[in-house]
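seq as requested:
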Amino acid sequence: MKVVIGADAANDDACFLKLNTILDKIESGWHVWEIEEPDSLVHSSFLSQSKSLKEMYQQAAKRSVYPQSSNIHRKKVVITLCPQADYEFKPKVAAAYLTAPLTVIMENRNTDGQFFDSLCQVLGPPELIELMQVKPPPLKHDSPGGNGEIPSLVEHYVKEAREIGYPARVIVFTDSDARYPGDMHTNPEKVRESCANHGIPCLVLSKRTIENYIPDEAFDSWCAKRTWEENHPWVTSLMRLSDCQRDYFPMKNGFRKMNENGFSREETLLYATVSQADKDALEKGFLTGPIELLKTEKSALTPAGFRQRDGAGDLDRLVEMVMENL
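struct tokens:
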């Protein structure tokens, strides 16, 4: 975020500890110091504390005069003793807000977290990729163990932030769990509604699950390293599915549960063109867990591959949502 330190806070000794805490995060790269009125700060008692503070101020002032375009640090936070507008905070509240990482709520912090990190690394601009390497990281994953519990976790973060006095630093993404085009599930809709009620950015993915976004190049790379594996016929049959069929195919479990429980009318229509041989090959899910391919085949992943498999702009919207809130 862009951080503006008001002259009133910069001349109140009681604020200096909190301002220094914030500057630590700025120095680490979490935020940038924006100087709007240089004359109001240059002789402040805060800057007079040390030479290093003055040098940091001078660098920030130079950047503010000659700003460079950036995909991150879009929101502006003003630190003042008399906040009067949104994102204007007293130093104590500002310190709590600016030292809290942006929390990305998802169904499963392990698999969804791996998916999310891969997306940011492949689709994100250099500034985002560099920021994700900062320690401690300015992003954190959290999950309640299923999208049915996400609204409760959102409520927890909103309540916690409200008690301190700032808006929750949270974004949410979740699977749609749709089994065919037009299928609507209750849990994702509840997540969307909860986020809308609390003003939390939210993306419900249009495909069935995150696994349905794994690009062809990941499977191609996996197969190229192995002369024969149980999964080879599975991948071959998967690639014969149409784009729409792949959007809703149960990647983790295959057709097994659908065979056991019976195909719905909509599922029967969706997979009508799939041969029995391919249905048999796809009876089970990918043996090693498809999301692992994002780790083992990392070097093969490209922006074009992700976007081609996506087709609807979901993944770019998710990355954009991150950048808008850092």
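The chain has three domains: 2-98, 102-210+310-325, 214-307.
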